[in-house]
């Protein structure tokens, strides 16, 4: 393959002649330019330059080979010539570097919120927008954690809780505590080593990691990073071309994956407006007329990656999946008791109650809200044996895990907290976060008077208001403005 | 007709000798000055000048001819002499022009709230006050959208939602999706082309526009702007002089209008205090003593236009309306199940559940709150067949449309969102807004697991708290001030 | 009586020799100084000077004659010598004068909240603290209006509401609308003419004024200010010395008072901490050590006036009151259905449901909250005929009056709104405020589809949540800080 | 014992040679340095100096003697040499001194919140963090007082309340009103005289003080400070070594303690993150790499003191406690009706419903919330006689005491309010605070129409919402930003 110099590549930086370097290869994207789903602007930003850092997090490594004709690849870049070029730090890169330098010590991270707050500072705007956004008004996204606040505890005393055991099994795998890292896309937006960071963190705490279809790393890279004997699960977006899915699933099974989780809550991606706005900001050049309505409507990182989810998937496809794999199959994204019962009747091994982290349908209920009624419905039809119910969404404290277990969950998944820990402190961050969750869970169990997960039951929580959605009357601003708030004594005089 | 020069007109600018130019005609308003319902101040502002821009949005075009003697019209203005006069841009005009220049691209408008936020900047204070105000403390106005937040979704999965059909019929007309633009007065306050903008936007999306009685454009101007085959409806304020209403209705029917909506929630106009205050600001000159209590109590744009609504209208008038037209007749402004049942028994074709956009009675319930009980009451009396129930008020998201359909509505009306889109981006704005609503509705249907409106039913929404009005206890300010809020790690040092 | 010059009086300004001028008389208060319930400080502030302005609002005119020996009165002040003295405007007086000059025109007052907001500026700190304060955390004070927000409307349409009649009778007196001005103490704190302003305002609107025991004006001054034929009521604090009360009641009856309202919710005055703090501010001189704990605990205007309320009053006293007067007797301050029933059984003519404007027991319920259950209890015992139930507390809108009537009240009382209107714009202010209430009530009746008070019934309001007291869970600050709020498009760039 | 000079001690200030002065003795802590549970940093801060002020509040006086070999004590400090050394006021000490000088007069303290607000200013950061912190998100800590806001009053009128009697008995002791000061650790953090201040304050008001196991003063110092005949209780953390507990309990009984309260809600200390953060701030030197994750995870004052609480304590231990003492035994920290019943069945004299001031399990219910159901459960099993139920947590007003009595409590405990009063104004502060509570309670009783505690019953309070935990829907920020709040007339122009 031809070796090309960085200087030569740099000359091809016009719309009618665009070369870019990706993963050490040089491509001529001139013809592809107008067809790029993510817009021309972002390609032109890297015209004549190395685009790998921007390309890698949001494209599968093999996408060019699969979708563009071989002749667009002009050759190999001469790495030495590339290294010789002066590095210029952009304002955004500088901002991120300084934020990383200024971030608190990992020991000061006392809870999952701390990681989120740090992530807000150290992530690139594109990564923050992609990870932090929810759909529409983000009501469901915030409801996910809020719903746990509607569940109160009923602690018992004078139980010998010297020794507390948090271990359990999930689909037959013994784990240290009932939490797994759920599948989230595009980990390289937050960390250059992407999903491998999450796998390693999971291994360090003997819990399971669910590998995503839309990973930034290739599936095998992730599996290769796993510790000996580490169990992973696979999250699957079903492709309209079932052969693609079949190959993927069977390859995963061969590599030792122990559970298949088919996502069913995303026949269409939700509108994540923060992500859309961020993308727009990046795309819209100052010189474009602000009133020009012809700017391509751009849909953020989220939409750029999801051309491969089949909206016609139905219950009838379940049998086919059963035929291609021996892994336990669960569906992820169930949001009603009715569908949980259908899943059990369809012979699946379980469900994940989930609203996709509040990224799909706004006003979808939180998993924890519907958990109790799901368990009741399964029990009523005697379908609760050998059927595992997981929940994800809004898990931020050890007490959230306890509440989910009390209401019948086999375990809980976390998404954003792990992503934020990864993005801020890498593997150590993920390890620390998981340790916090486990430590908090142990404390809650001890203070609740239970010694093992099997001792936890529904009577230990008060769910009287779990299904209530309180919307306050609109504020009475005239009265509010007229009112004279009482102020306590003891405000310091300003001189202090 | 005599031709008069602008210079000549300019001389008549005193209270005892006032000429103004309106729609290219010169009027001597000296005698009318003390009788003007909107006050003398506003006429004197345009004494000797062209008042058309201020006059047009809030007066029907033929009002002078109908109410003033012919001799007040002195002749035609010499347009060339007018054009020769130097234009002076007022501070308000400059502010609005700059706001228009600075507004975001239409592509950045991701939802109906974005249009409202832009409208706040680009509308004249008079227009913003008129459009945005509600009655009294604006509790009902805000409740209208809030009420949708009390309705949560129950999404179903593994349904083939590749193809989603949002079409339906309304009073027999096939439309692209179940939304119409409802009647709102005085469109020229927001856009020089007034209601024709809304008609055109509706046509582009194959939905219905309800033409208002209190339009800024004449009825025929609006109908002339309609696309071939476009269906419009007519909103009617019933005049105490029934012949006026009869002529209007029969003319509309001849022009092809396909539905008559009689407003029944406005026997008196509500107190819209923001509008009243804005009007006062405009009227009260600095030189008036601030303690003078004799300044005429002025009621804003709202009251200036509503001398023609008969407060003595009753159910007995329905038969007469049936006798003068063959159009389907519905009443707009129903707010109880009892009145919906009465409407059905009176042989009407339907009702619009509405509280007039929160502009009439504060603490009136939102339409969406009472929809389910209205449908139940109709069903209980077997009156739900061939009877169409619409709702308006607070529709801001595609999910709001879905919720209304789920609770039994045939369709929903939007008012302010369309007005704001019109005022900010004209026809393109209205088109874009309607497109957003349709796109969001399609997404919601897909994520809910339905393929057509007929598959939507009440079981898909959770309305447990729909009738709850939660008012928080007064804040405990002393405790609040004394409490030390926890702050997460990771606030950036100020140097960044 | 001896005539004394201002210059002579001015010399007596030391603690061991204190003269002050009150109502044109000169008093030697040297011996009384240490016994003054309001503290020495305030007397010394006026040592050698005219103290009338400070004295008048918070003392009955005859208090010195009644409680001090005649020899303290040294003679008459020479008014000319007093007038000759240069007037010095204090900083507080200047602030109030400027606030009055800057206040909005009365025509801009659109609702009762506007008066409150103006009053906050133009009242002296002492007056504002006394009028605006409630007890403890002021939860009940604010709850009083809040509770109306828990009542929603059920408006009916297509009723002929051309003519709306708001008139009614109260204890046999025909009034223009069902509202009276209730008794509040110390009107001169807000206006130099005190309670006469309220009487006059009531007369102008043909409603009733309830004269307070603790008026700043003498009872006869108030009655003398009444219009011919004007009906007043009397509010009574019962004195431990029953003869004092007997004389007062019988004198009032002779002067034509038509109703006796005995206050029963104040066996002890509530802790109004804002008032206490204000009083402290006034008293505590800078030179006192801030850590000195010996400063006399002072209880604000409220406590200075209430040494004459008998805490031993019981139901058995009712018979005695019946024996001394033929006026209808009602008790004011009932807060349970049980006590309303006892009142009816005791042969009283009615009750006022009231918590004393939130100035007594914090967490006492609002009158409107308990109104429905009170009416039910009376009806259950067939005691609701010839028994009138009034409510006060939190009435701020015409809709509040409507709601009270719907739930069974014969009428409503307003306190602070009238005081604020009086304090800001005098008689015109009270007139304007009453006019606003009447206008709003008429509008609400029209929009509710009723033509007279007798057509109003409980079915017209939704009281589902009337008894619910919602306290929000404590805020989740860590999550709150970490969350990134969405911001709509269209914020103007700062240059505009 | 050898006498050592301050100058000599000052030389030993290196890690390999550390002397410190504590309570006038000189210790060589070189070997102990790496084992100090609170970290080396804090010891090195006082290397070569007098560490008494930092040591005393968080260590029992005899801890060195008990845990370190005798040879670490090198001798006595020469006090004169110490006094001769120049005192340097640190920035923190200066800040606290100025805050004390600027604090309001004690007479201005009108309620318990005022003390808290002053304490925020005058306490050292370490003391404030320790006292004010709760566990996790501090939801339960704040819920404790909030829950009282869900209880409303039903006041009765026309009862002779001239004389009101607040006295009662607690475990047989006659007290002036039904409140005691509960056990809280480390009083010397807030006041140099520690727990003796609280004892003295309690004596002045004839109420009971519960002496804590983790006091800063020795148990005997506290008992010695008691007034003649004053009754104290003892709070006990049970040591894994039961002999330690036995000696402590029997010694207390000998010294006249009249009640034993065994804490059962702390088998592990809760995560008090504010305290942890403060500790970290103090420990983490600037020179440590901020990204270094090896800094010892430090747990604040809370964890430094609690190595002696046995997590294996069970119901079976109760019999043993019965065998070693004749004091009444109660358990403190009961949080369910089930455990209250078990306590009664185990022959205990009562329980304290408590969640440890919100410092242990977040989302544990408040004592007041569960009180009614606890009483019902006891009554149902006829266990409510001779069994006293106390509550603590969130008592801030006299009305809170009333509510607890109405729901069945024998009395209430206060913790933080007393600590804040002690820390701000010493004994006078505690006296004043207790006086406020008593005064408020008397007022509430009078306004409720009761003359003695025995007249108070459950029917006097409305607990309809006591068990409701309302969590508001997430805010609709887009709508919120777009809305134009109404502003009342009467804002002053800026010139005023």
TrEMBL record, chains A, B, C, D:
| Gene3D superfamilies to which the protein is assigned, alphabetical | Aldolase class I, Cytochrome b5-like heme/steroid binding domain
List, alphabetically, the SUPFAM superfamilies matched: Cytochrome b5-like heme/steroid binding domain (SSF55856), FMN-linked oxidoreductases (SSF51395)
Question: Reaction catalysed?
Answer: (S)-lactate + 2 Fe(III)-[cytochrome c] = 2 Fe(II)-[cytochrome c] + pyruvate + 2 H(+)
Localization (cell): Mitochondrion intermembrane space
The segment(s) forming the FMN hydroxy acid dehydrogenase domain are 104-466
GO terms (molecular function) for this protein are: heme binding; L-lactate dehydrogenase (cytochrome) activity; metal ion binding
UniProt EC number: 1.1.2.3
Q: Which InterPro entries does the entry mention?
A: Aldolase_TIM (IPR013785), Cyt_B5-like_heme/steroid-bd (IPR001199), Cyt_B5-like_heme/steroid_sf (IPR036400), Cyt_B5_heme-BS (IPR018506), FMN-dep_DH (IPR000262), FMN_HAD (IPR037396), FMN_hydac_DH_AS (IPR008259), L-MDH/L-LDH_FMN-bd (IPR037458)
Which terms are listed as keywords in the entry?
Flavoprotein, FMN, Heme, Iron, Metal-binding, Mitochondrion, Oxidoreductase, Transit peptide, Transport
Q: Cytochrome b5 heme-binding domain location, by residue?
A: 1-78
Give the main localization category: mitochondrion
GO cellular component term, pick one: mitochondrial intermembrane space
Name what cofactor the protein needs: FMN
A GO BP entry: lactate metabolic process
PANTHER family recorded for this chain?
L-LACTATE DEHYDROGENASE (CYTOCHROME), S -2-HYDROXY-ACID OXIDASE-RELATED
Q: Which family does it belong to?
A: Belongs to the cytochrome b5 family. In the C-terminal section; belongs to the FMN-dependent alpha-hydroxy acid dehydrogenase family.
Quaternary structure, per UniProt, is:
Homotetramer.
Q: What name does the UniProt record give this protein? A: L-lactate dehydrogenase (cytochrome)
| Species of provenance | Hesseltinella vesiculosa
